[in-house]
Amino acid sequence: MALLIQNGRVFREGRLERADLLVEGDRIAAIGEGLPQAPGARVFDASGCVVSPGFTDLHVHLREPGFSHKETVASGTAAAAAGGFTTVCAMPNVSPVPDSPARLLPQARRIARDARVRVVPYAAITRGRRGEALYEVAALAPHVAGFSDDGRGVRSEETMRAAMERVAAAGSFVAAHCEVEALIPAGGCCHDGAFARSHGVPGIPSESEYAEIARDIRLAAETGCRLHICHLSTKEGAALVRKARKRGLPVTCEAAPHNLLLCDGEIPADEGRFKMNPPLRAADDRAALVEALLDGTITAIATDHAPHTAEEKSGGFRGSLFGVVGLETAFPALYTGLTEPGLLPLGRLLKLLTAGPQEILGERRTLAPGEEASLTVLDLRTARKVEPERFLSRGRATPFAGRTLRGWPALTLYRGKEVYRRWPGIQTEG
Fold first, then answer.
1. Is this prediction's pTM over 0.85?
2. Annotated catalytic residue within 20, 192, 285, 304
3. Interval 107-117 mean pLDDT
């Protein structure tokens, strides 16, 4: 059955235009003003809404196989659909670690069986994500987004150089978790700043991130490997990436909504829902990240969606695991926190969630007749409070709990199939 999305603003080719959009089967059939209502077609009134290509998230933790008590492919992709995401890239900190075709297979089978949206997994950089032994990556490269040991940095420079050489030869990229563990004091659990000092907890210095960013940029220059820096959080790191990109090096980076919107001086309480890695940094770091969005240094926003159980997040900063969820709140948090105040134009925000991450994956997905109907309709009018107990994710820990936000997805289609709908009123015409 056809679906006609009427009266919205359609985001395509970097511009917003008033138009209707007709979906037939799994494809976009037509885009234009005043499209006719075919008999029997469903109609969605998108007044006050923006129709965007489905978002792409380069950095999510679906936790399956191995850790389904935290999240499953089914629950994580349901959360993705609720957040407007139709492609997510799953990090390799699962069990078994995907470091061979055989060890990727259990994850691939769960994705094929349970995913509500497109899931592209990462493979590990090193055997077992231990930062030591390498393996032949060529057999895995065609089946994964890229290569990452996310959750830990690759300590050995020699190992990282050799890994980059192999990944470059395979035509893929490294997604680097940049962290020098030796620079972090025992028990480091938040930024080495205002909150750490006021609560007497060990802090994580900015240097632990930017020192490894500098090393990996140098190795990317030496090897020609494409380098993508995960969850950038420091002003020094942003400056290094900016310089690298001006030199024409194959370096990209992402930032997470929580690092773009919050800083350590604003943490209201010693609660696990504010503990993530990298941590919330200082106000000048947050400002530098926003500047990097505007000047093109940061070309993608990624959630680093990292669900844990309520018990695992109940121990405050000292006793909770690192990680918060973000798929269901990403767009409304960013729209409310950056676009409504005039800090980030809506078109730029949408590009950072669509074309930006797609380019890193070597893809181009847009809204045009004949293209796949994977899209989201964003309601910019309705304000709604963040209620974690209503999340589709199994994770509940979010720093945005209780905040009132605008810009919630009202409808998400994946390949023409409705995978999320908040509004009840899709009508069927005569």
1. yes
2. 304
3. 98
